[in-house]
């Protein structure tokens, strides 16, 4: 395992026309590229995760898991805007010599993909055996598979969509509104907006989980309580936890990048864009997902050629894509077996099946 930084020597142009000088992309690699260069697993992380995929996706990625360094060359890169090493709002602007903060240029999922394509070229990765991502990570992988369809053999999209929904955008805007109520956010200092970020995380959790999740995990054992409820403590704890490891500026820009996701932008339409994907594709939904409902993954499977859909039952809503790793690994393994059995043969349009 190793952590590295890719330094892009040219000026990086964003979809908006704005530019970033001295772009840096921090990334992790695990395992080694084999002589045939056909063992690459490329994973994209979600909103507040990092490039250390072994840390946040155990059960899928690890020494003894489905994706392991003994068999695979695994690459996970931090997004632009992420506070874990890639160029982000707290980085030094080479023009001013000061951190960017709110002067950081707004970027899109497509910009993140463009940066990671540069990294793949730098690493000599012309072909990716498996590209995988969930949530915002899935949005990145889908956009990349549309933009650069020849690079990928297999694509695994979990709890994600072809364009971010009005519902998802509304949740993100509510979180940004919470951050904006913290006046320190506009002070341009490292901990600016921390209290607002804590509230934003609390809002986000309501979309990541659900009524039944809280009913089981935060249910009181006594009928006599008047205050200090488990659910209240949980919201505060999770908000504090993110506040200590993240920053409000990265959260603000990354949530806007998620809102920008639409594979149909600048193309004839969303179905037409999805038809460009050449990778054999597995779309996985979580039956209780409120933020990325399973209908969105069914839509992907319906419009991507050579795609199939599987559904995982989970108590944990959208967070099921991080928690139900045993079930997800089983579905991916089955998909791989089908891929090799049908490789080189024409495949029928997917049938929708439920797993778990």
UniProtKB/TrEMBL annotation:
Recorded catalytic activity of this chain's protein: L-homoserine + acetyl-CoA = O-acetyl-L-homoserine + CoA
Cross-referenced InterPro entries: AB_hydrolase_1, AB_hydrolase_fold, HAT_MetX-like
EC number from the UniProt entry: 2.3.1.31
Top-rank EC class of the record's enzyme: transferase
UniProt binding sites for substrate: 201, 319
Domain spans labelled AB hydrolase-1: 44-322
Active site: 135 (nucleophile), 289, 318
Localisation per UniProt entry: Cytoplasm
Pathway stated in the Swiss-Prot or TrEMBL entry: Amino-acid biosynthesis; L-methionine biosynthesis via de novo pathway; O-acetyl-L-homoserine from L-homoserine: step 1/1
Alphabetic keyword roster: Acyltransferase, Amino-acid biosynthesis, Cytoplasm, Methionine biosynthesis, Transferase
Subunit annotation: Homodimer.
Function recorded in the entry: Transfers an acetyl group from acetyl-CoA to L-homoserine, forming acetyl-L-homoserine.
The protein, known as: Homoserine O-acetyltransferase
